Structure to design on (205 residues):
């Protein structure tokens, strides 16, 4: 019996978080795809924690053991191999109804390698199982373009690297990509549906 046959029919359970205020607020659902990228210390982890604290059905692959203080489900890898990651992806797929966040995502969704089978399922077809994904990375130029291009939401913090800025330019255009160099800490460019806008920091709570 294959894995698909093992999955019983179930209702999708969708939760959401509001990022920002007013008409420009962003609504991120637990079955959406998202990319959060930027240099260290610029706000990625603060935004990630804000999202995960407000999405009850979330789970994070936490290789740097950064999220222990939150009341969320997480997995800290023991061996940190791609096989270990793939086993976690399989469990996420079979469980369903979860926002699956991956820290250091460029290591597990690499740009120059094929995605592992269950990681690929999650990114390409996870929404049918109520599964969303969130790729968190410091090196967006090393992130698999399938993950980035299928993200419903893209949050970009400050970058200086030419490779990272050029990678972003392909998706968000030259003007917005050029602005990544001068972003203040914790401010970010939000991109969706061909529109990029700069948004202020999220609350650290």
């Amino acid at each position: 019996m294959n894995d698909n046959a093992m999955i019983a029919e179930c209702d999708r359970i969708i939760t959401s978080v509001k990022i920002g205020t007013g008409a420009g607020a962003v609504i991120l659902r637990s079955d959406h795809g998202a990319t959060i990228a930027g240099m260290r210390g610029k706000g990625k982890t603060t935004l990630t924690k804000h999202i995960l604290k407000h999405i009850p059905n979330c789970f994070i692959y936490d290789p740097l053991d950064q999220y222990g203080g939150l009341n969320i489900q997480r997995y800290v890898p023991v061996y940190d191999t791609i096989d270990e990651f793939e086993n976690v992806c399989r469990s996420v797929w079979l469980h369903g109804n979860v926002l699956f966040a991956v820290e250091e995502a460029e290591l597990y969704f690499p740009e120059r390698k094929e995605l592992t089978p269950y990681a690929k399922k999650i990114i390409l077809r996870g929404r049918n199982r109520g599964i969303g994904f969130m790729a968190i990375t410091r090196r967006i130029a090393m992130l698999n373009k399938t993950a980035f291009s299928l993200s419903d939401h893209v949050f970009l913090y400050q970058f200086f690297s030419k490779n990272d800025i050029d990678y972003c330019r392909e998706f968000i255009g030259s003007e917005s990509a050029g602005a990544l160099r001068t972003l203040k800490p914790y401010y970010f460019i939000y991109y969706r549906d061909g529109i990029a806008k700069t948004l202020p920091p999220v609350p650290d709570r």
Remarks:
- The beta strands are 16-19, 26-29, 33-37, 58-61, 73-75, 98-102, 131-137, 153-156, 188-192, 195-199.
- Residues 18 and 60 are 19 Å apart (CA to CA).
